[in-house]
Structures are given as C-alpha cells and as structure tokens.
Amino acid sequence: MTPRTALSAAATPPWRLARSSWPWRSLLYLAAGLVPAGLPLALLAGIELLRPGRTALILLLVAALLIVVAAGPLIAGFDRRKLRLVDTRPLPPRPPLRLGEAGTWREIGYAVLSACVAWWLDLAVVLLSLLPPLMLMSAPLQPSGPGAELPADAWFTALLCAAGFVLLPFAAYPITAWAGARAAVARAVLASADTDLVEVLRSRQRLAAGFDDERRRIERDLHDGAQQRLVALSVTLGLARLRVADDHTVAPLLDDARQQTAAALAELRELIRGVHPQVLSDRGLAAAIRDIAGRSPVPVDLDLRLDGRLPAPVEATAYFAVNEALANLARHSSATGGRVRAWTQDRQLVLEVHDDGAGGADPARGTGLTGLADRTAAVGGRLLLASPPGGPTLLRVELPCDR
Amino acid sequence: MRSLRVVLAEDSVLLREGLTSLLRHFGHEVVAAVGDADALREQVPLVRPDIVVTDVRMPPGFSDEGLRAALALRAELPHLPILVLSQYVEQTYAAELIDAGRSAGTGYLLKDRVGEVAEFVDGLVRVADGHTVIDPEVVRQLLDRRRDPLHRLTPREREVLGLVAEGRSNAAIARRLVVTEAAVAKHIAGILAKLDLPPDADDHRRVLAVLAYLRG
Hints:
The complex is a heterodimer. Chain A is α+β, with helices and mostly antiparallel strands. Chain A has helices spanning about 5-10, 15-20, 20-30, 40-50, 55-85, 100-135, 155-190, 195-240, 250-275, 280-295, 310-330, 365-380; strands at about 300-305, 340-345, 350-355, 380-385, 395-400.
C-alpha cells in the first residue's frame, strides 16, 4: 500500500523510500518551516545592528511577540497548507477565527512555537543527517597529502566518496521521519482529534438522514406504483366478476384472484408501514405515536407534550424507538399495561416508555435494542434502559433537537 | 336504486378510470373526476354532487391533501356526504373525519375495499344516504385496543359490534350473519347495555356512539 504520510513512508525499505518522493517532500516541508523563522531572525539581526538599550530591547521583544501572535493564524494557515506535502490525508475544516474559539488559540500557540523553536530543530536534523554523507562524497575535493587529514591515496578517497553515495539514501530516513513527526504534531494541534470526531459524527448523521430520505422515497414509490396498480387490478377483477355468472367455471378463479390481490395489498401495506409511516410525515410524532399505541395489543397510556413539528430525523428516530419499545412490550414483557411519555426540555426530546411487565430486557440478546441504541446515537442522542428481572421496565430516549 | 352524482378525486389515472367505470356499471354518474385536491375544491361547489369520493394522498404535496380538502368541504358544505379512501388505516384521519361533521354521511375505507365492488358501492350509497361507514380494519384496531369492558362481550356480540361500526343496518347485519333481525336487535341491546350506552334506533347515531366509545 502506498504510504499516505511521511511517517508511514519512513517505515518502508530503503530502496523504496529512496525512489519515492517522500524524502524530497520532507525536505521541502522542513525548508518551508524556515519561512516563519524570518521574524525572529529579523529581530536578531535588528538587535545586532541597532544595539538598543534595555528598555528599547524589552519593547522590541514585546512587539515581536505581539506580531507573532497576530500573525499566528496566518502562520497556522501556511502550516496547514504545507502539511499536505507530508500528509495526504484530508484535513477537517479549519475552525472559525474567533477569540472565544479554542482552535484559534491552539493555532496561535503553534505559530509561536514554529516561529521560535521548531525551525532550528528542523535545521539541526537536516544538517546532521546530510553532513556525514556529503562530507564523505566531497572527499576527492578535500585537501589531501602530507599535512592534511586525508592521505594522498586516490583509491582511498574514491572509497570514501563511494561510501558517501551509499550513505546518502539513508539520510532520507531521519529527514522523512522527522518531517513525519513534525507533521503529526502539526495535525494534532491544528486539526485536533475532537474535530475529527465531530466530522465522524456529522457523517454518521448524514448517513442516518440519508437512510431516512431513502426510506421515504421507497415508501412513496411503492405507494404511487405497486399499490395503486394492485388496487386498480382488484377493481378490474371485481368488474370482471360482475360480468360472469355465479355458476360459470371462471367465477371461482376470479374470486380466488381477487382474494390473492387483497392479500398482496395487505402485505404491501404492512411492508410500507415498516419502511416509513405516512402519518409521521403528514401529522408529526404525536399523531404517529398515537397510531402505534392504537395498534398495540397491550393497552398503552399516552402523555404526549409535543407541540409543533420536530426535525425529520428526530421524529423518525423517536417513532422507531416507540415502535420498537411497544413491540418488545407486547412480545416479551407479559405486561398488562404500558405508558408512553414524551416532552421537550432543554433543546431535547425525551421519550419514556414504561411497562409493568417482567423486566429483564437485555440489549445484548436482541438486535432490536442495539439497533435502537445505534439509531439514537446517530442523531447524537442516548438511550437508557432500566429493566431489572421482575420488572418494571423503563426505556428512556433523549434526542437533541434545536428548534 | 337511485343514481348518484359523484365527484371523484384520485391522482392515479388507472384507478380513476377503474372507479369511474365501476360506478357507471352500478348506474351512478361521475360528474367530475379530478386528480388533485385543489381541483376537487373548485369542482364541488360548481357541480353540487350527491357525494364526494376522495383519495387521501394527492398532488402537489403527496401528503394528506385529499383529507384536508374533504375537511374543508365539510366545513363549507356541512350536508355533503364524503367518502375518503385511504391506502392505510390511520386512526387519526378517521377520527378527524368523524369529528368534522355528524350531520352528513361520512365514510372512511381502505382502498382495498373497492375490489369488493358490490360491497364498496353499497357502502358508497349508504354514505350518500347519510350513514357513517368505517373500515372494518379501523374497527378491529379499536376493538384490539379497548379490551377492558369489551371482553365482557361474547364473540358474536363483538362481531355484531364490528358490523354496527361499519354502519350497517339491523337488516343488513341479519342477512350477513344469517340470523333474524330480532336476534340482531337483541345482540345490539346487549352490547349497548354492557358498554353503558343509551339504546338508539337510529343507525347513524348508534354508529357514532359506538365509535365514540371505542375511541375512548
């Protein structure tokens, strides 16, 4: 697999690393690190030239620090760009530039560090890595003979030069590894892990919303397509039956066909309800919960304090939560009654499904509760379950909803 | 049998044609067949039909436009019988429809029922005559939900109750169950007594009472 960062490239065998572009990119990356160093270098040069007094010196240093702080976001932006040289993985979007934003202060701290400290470390690593092979390679150019360090032996200098050429590719390792390590630090500071996680959460939300949209589309297609055609077919069969005398041999066949059509319609209706219930899109969560409760074989009390519509993903998740909970209640709990409460508080939708059944519900044993927990998590909510053996069972779902 | 002037609102052309020929076969006249809720609301005051038959879900939003149009028509023309056809049993819709008006015939049927052509047209005529016809599926769900005093009913009484809720007369129930009308009347008296409902000879009021009871 092709490495995606300099750090992982540094773990490849020498013949591959030397042939790849990684050492050059690393070198370029480290060289580009000298750009922000321009400021402190200019400062040093200024001090050297002007030889200011103590007060002026302090003022100069403070001014320099302020300039670095002010230029922080600029330097950080530059560092983000050059990060692509040694780290091809995508970066999360840059945090907004605000005084109250933690990301902004991280950027400034990083800028101060890279302008004042990091660049000479980079320089040291590059020089220390390249010096030995370059020295060896330059052996034929060095003074030799009596009085010089090298003996006047052409074979020996040629050998040293060759050794330099052999060693040079190995200098790629410290340079690439160092650039990789620096990039890892830059990524950790400029694109911290929690923004990564936010991105994952968002993509999960988008996926969940995408599934909901898809379900709605499937429901509409089935409704407008197959279902309408089946109804029309049953009308045609009904009309055909009217034109056939009761004792005709075709009559029982037509009756049979009509019954099969009716069965197909009933099955299709149940299927569509499972995909996406129409009442949820049309009338919102409260009506849909009333509808589920109305279907429940176990009597269910409702206490719904919901007014207005909630965001579609929240409504869909809440609907499937109640559906699952009431299905479990009817199937497993041997409860004689249940209760669904729903209300909004602190920008949250809270759902509680309560029953007086046998308890002992275990998310590990069925896929229903696990799936429900996943769905809840996908919209940033959480699911709490209290179901001691012997009951009662309380399922609580909290879903964030900014209205 | 009298011939009814029907306004039909159904967005599927296939089904609209099917229903039109079905109604024609039974001697009724489709005076206007429209494909969306706005057209329905425009046509009805113009043609003054005996009954409106409408789908729930129609353009432009493919939500519950048909039902909303029906409710709006009910508010404008309180004596206009309305039969709503739905792809699904939604108790919310049934409840809204029943609550909207008790002075005129009201029907809420699953679309599947149109396949039973004779029964469907029979239901349509009953709605046009001012009765209430509720789909057996709605009744079944309501019966499933309210178990408390209902379990005192015998299976036969539950069967009769379902037929009552569908808006059938004593005579029709008697035919259906192959018993005498007197036996049906006895069952109904028993049901009403067990549910603490006042006895009532009027089919329509009786259906409403039963539905009101079932909905809790």
